Amino acid sequence: MEAPKPEEITHPPMDQLQGLEYCIDSNPSWGEAIALGFQHYILALGTAVMIPSFLVPLMGGDDGDKVRVVQTLLFVEGINTLLQTLFGTRLPTVIGGSYAFMVPIISIIHDSSLSRIEDPHLRFLNTMRAVQGALIVSSSIQIILGYSQLWAICSRFFSPLGMVPVIALVGFGLFDRGFPVVGRCVEIGVPMLILFIAFSQYLKGFHTRQLPILERFALLITVTVIWAYAHLLTASGAYKHRPELTQMNCRTDRANLISSAPWIKIPYPLQWGAPTFNAGHAFGMMAAVLVSLVESTGAFKAASRLASATPPPAHVLSRGIGWQGIGILLSGLFGTLSGSTVSIENVGLLGSTRVGSRRVIQISAGFMIFFSILGKFGALFASIPFTIFAAVYCVLFGLVASVGLSFLQFTNMNSMRNLFITGVALYLGLSVPDYFREYTAKAFHGPAHTNAGWFNDFLNTIFFSPPTVALIVAVFLDNTLDYKDSARDRGMPWWVKFRTFKGDSRNEEFYTLPFNLNRFFPPS
User: Fold this and answer.
1) Across the strands, what pairs with 97?
2) Could you give the CA distance from residue 442 to residue 154 in angstroms, rounded to a whole number?
3) pTM of the model
């Protein structure tokens, strides 16, 4: 048998991902774009409902308070997504709530000055105002790093090799949001997972009027089918004698969102009262802002790949971080009970649908704002059991992680140095946060447990984040271990042309500001 030729067993590296139907600046028809935008809105509901559902009861809030927080979070998500897609990186990214902020927020909830308040509603309001104050102050970190271009300078130390563990763990690091949650209600979670994979992958060749409807709208179709199935199980009394935890995760009537939601309510700044400011709370929250910065950096790079764009130049990335800082400031002013970061699941949906269009994401932002104002209608969609979302996360988070691994094509993986850095960064990025999680679950406090609460929150928040640990390890090793003679192995010759706006002619097509604003903010 004749030996295969080298070109038959290798695949040349590609600047832009191939196989997408629509890239960042090409658009489907208006009808298809609106349906795809609604699909992104439905997916964003998972995190937007889950964070307030967990935090509001701890603060003393009732179902009415929970609904208002969910509405406010969706409203601000819509605004932030529009700002980011118009004036930030201009990548098709949904800017949503972040789990990274939960550690410092829980610390604020347990602050003795707040927890001793006996009236539950008063405790909720005072805690909300304290969280708002911390978010407002800490947002200055991203605003300064972004608009001063300091993050652009920092990003010059990033190579394709150093970014692989970061982007990969943006997806893999959320493994506890996937099947562990599906397992809480396998009778709806597992069918959802199987159906979503079947529709989006195995049946993607099914066309209606030349439109791959099952691939393109797999999320909408499967969520509708499984939601109806879950409602049927609930109505038939299948969960009547099941444990309370099973009922909470399986029943479709336990969210109490529809009955508590007003018909029309427009969120507005300072709706909970004047924010209160505490230096300790603000320092703890700054760690979450830094984690959000790292996670969004990885997510922006993944989104650029799944939108068939070139990697964002350093100043564009920094500009996006500055606008995300504005988003966290708005979160503090409105009182969303969470900061802002790129929604990883929505980045994954770009790849699943093979539609990376910016217009689709802007339409989804319109749905977020519209349904956050029309409370009853928004609450109807928000009452989808979280297990259904978790099943989809199993696919979408994995897809984002694989985009991170795809950056290895620009590096030399026959180099022991590169194998060492990639393996150690990936392993520690998973292992260190898992240690922090297990320690906290057993001891009810993080490994950092000193008399300085702000210091504890800072360290515990940083090391709870897999992408942040991976960035620290990978970038340090990549820039200190035999770095002088390894530029080619690290992928720097490929990466360097995308560092500046004028380094590649395609950057102008993808990242130029609208309304001819580049005249006033010339790219570097």
Assistant:
1) 340
2) 37
3) 0.94
Report pLDDT digits (tens) over 256-297.
Answer: 777 777 888 899 999 999 999 999 999 999 999 999 999 999
Neighbour tally for 27: CB within 10 Å: 16
* pLDDT (mean) for 368-379: 86
pLDDT surpassing 70 at residue 6: no
Token pair for residue 37? Answer: 């935008």
The stretch 89-94 carries a mean pLDDT of 95
- What are the structure tokens assigned to 35, written together? 């349906």
d(CA 148, CA 314): 12
Rounded distance between C-alpha atoms, residue 206 and residue 335, angstroms = 45
Residue 366 neighbours by CB under 8 Å, 6+ apart: 37, 78
Does 5 reside within a domain? no
Give, in degrees to the nearest 5, the angle at Cα 347 between 428 and 190: 80
Listed in sequence order, the residues at least 6 apart from 308 whose beta carbon sits closer than 8 Å to its beta carbon are: 16, 17, 18, 20, 23, 24, 356
Residue 89 resides in a domain: yes
Q: What percent of the chain has pLDDT over 90?
A: 70
Whole-number Å distance between alpha carbons of 375 and 380 = 9
The amino acid that residue 448 corresponds to is A
What's the one-letter identity of residue 44? A
Q: Residue 182: which domain range?
A: 30-405
Is residue 17 included in any domain, yes or no?
Answer: no
Per DSSP, the three-state class of 97 is strand
Task: For residues 139 and 135, give the distance between their C-alpha atoms in angstroms, rounded to a whole number.
Answer: 6
What is the average pLDDT across 497-521? Answer: 78
| Paired sense of beta strands 340-342 and 95-97, if any | antiparallel
Per DSSP (E only), the strands in 162-315 are: none
- The DSSP H or E segment spanning 341 is strand 340-342
**Residue 521 pLDDT more than 70?**
no
The Cα–Cα gap between 157 and 476 comes to: 9
pLDDT above 60: residue 1: no
For residue 354, is it left (φ>0), alpha (ψ between -120 and 50) or beta?
left
Report how many domains make up the chain: 1
Between CA 340 and CA 488 the distance in angstroms is 36
Rounded CA separation 325/75 (Å): 17
Dihedral through CA 142, CA 144, CA 149, CA 153, nearest 10?
A: -70
* Model confidence pLDDT, tens digit, residues 135-191: 999 999 999 999 999 999 999 899 999 999 999 999 999 999 999 999 999 999 999
Within 10 A of 11 (CB to CB), how many other CB atoms are there?
7
Whole-angstrom distance, CA of residue 108 vs CA of residue 128:
9
CA dist 285 and 282 (Å) reads 5
Mean pLDDT of 51-78: 93
What span, in angstroms and rounded, lies between the C-alpha atoms of 37 and 364?
A: 4
Is residue 9 included in any domain, yes or no? no
Confidence (pLDDT) at 8: 64
Report the run of H or E that residue 342 belongs to, with start and end: strand 340-342
